[in-house]
Amino acid sequence: MNMVILTGAGISAESGVPVFRGDDGLWEGHRVEDVATPEGFRRDPQLVHEFYNKRREKLLTVEPNPAHHALARLARDLKGSLTLVTQNIDDLHERGGSPEVLHMHGELLKSRCTQCGGVMECREDMSRASICPACGGIDCLRPHVVWFGEMPFHLDEVGSALHRADLFVSIGTSGRVYPAAGFVELAASSGARTLELNLEESAATEVFSECRQGPASELVPAWVD
Ligand code: BJW
């Protein structure tokens, strides 16, 4: 059986990584246009670096939760027929033991050079004056993430996996951001069964063939095991 799993911020919430939308969400204290668009970065790169520096620092203090571990067990059981796609930029799936993860919105622990295109590990604070270790350029590094208006990564691979899928499962995402929010319809139109696991109803709940509501750390292990 071919399975595609899409995860969002909700799967990492119980690890202590804040979600984006809702009370206490990341967008509550920030204007999305300022910190999550290429225009915002051009306007005030230092503000954007500080937003990601704080999140990077926090990420290094948190741990995967039972939902991440359960998906790693599932990947071992399914031996290659699971495609795990995440919108999250944290590395909690990898630390939870998942062997292969498609980060469609990038990775917080990487930076990218806007001059040479090089992608490198980044566990430290970034600033305007950072120097690219690959090309030596100054003031040309940015977080390796996908902002609004930019093309998400791995879309060809995800599209093929959705086309082949017998089951599509969405975990912990509000279903408000495209193209990820449209994956359920793509999978369903290819004949897949669709399941949503989320704390509450999402913008896409009515499109799924089955929905279960509750915290990911309980729902996901119960579904996997
Ligand atoms: C729990 C829980 C617990 C809590 N247990 N659950 C079509 C229509 C309209 C607009 C567009 C469209 N196509 C494109 C657009 C424009 C735009 C877009 O979608 N805008 C919308 C706002 C309308 N999209 C783009 O610009 C994208 N690029 C693009 O489309 O390129 C062109 C293209 C064309 C054709 C084909 C393909 C591409 C890029 C989007 C980039 C998004 N970037 C961000 C930031 C990444 C870096 C960073 O992290 O800072 O990605 S925005 C932010 O939202 C982040 C997330 O990955 C993403 C989704 O958020 P998520 O994960 O769903 O989090 P929340 O907070 O919204 O929801 C959490 C959920 O968890 C909630 O439901 C809770 O209930 C639940 N929860 N605790 C279980 N314990």
UniProtKB/TrEMBL annotation:
Its cofactor is Zn(2+). It comes from the Bacteria. It is found in: Cytoplasm. It holds the Pfam family SIR2. GO terms for molecular function: NAD-dependent protein lysine deacetylase activity. Binds 1 zinc ion per subunit. It catalyses: N(6)-acetyl-L-lysyl-[protein] + NAD(+) + H2O = 2''-O-acetyl-ADP-D-ribose + nicotinamide + L-lysyl-[protein]; N(6)-succinyl-L-lysyl-[protein] + NAD(+) + H2O = 2''-O-succinyl-ADP-D-ribose + nicotinamide + L-lysyl-[protein]. Keywords: Acyltransferase, Cytoplasm, Metal-binding, NAD, Transferase, Zinc. NAD(+) binds at Q87, N88, I89, D90, G172, T173, S174, N198, L199, E200, A216. The keyword Protein transport does not apply. Its EC number is 2.3.1.286. The keyword Transport does not apply. Belongs to the sirtuin family. Class III subfamily. NAD-dependent lysine deacetylase and desuccinylase that specifically removes acetyl and succinyl groups on target proteins. Modulates the activities of several proteins which are inactive in their acylated form. This is NAD-dependent protein deacylase. It comes from Haloferula chungangensis.
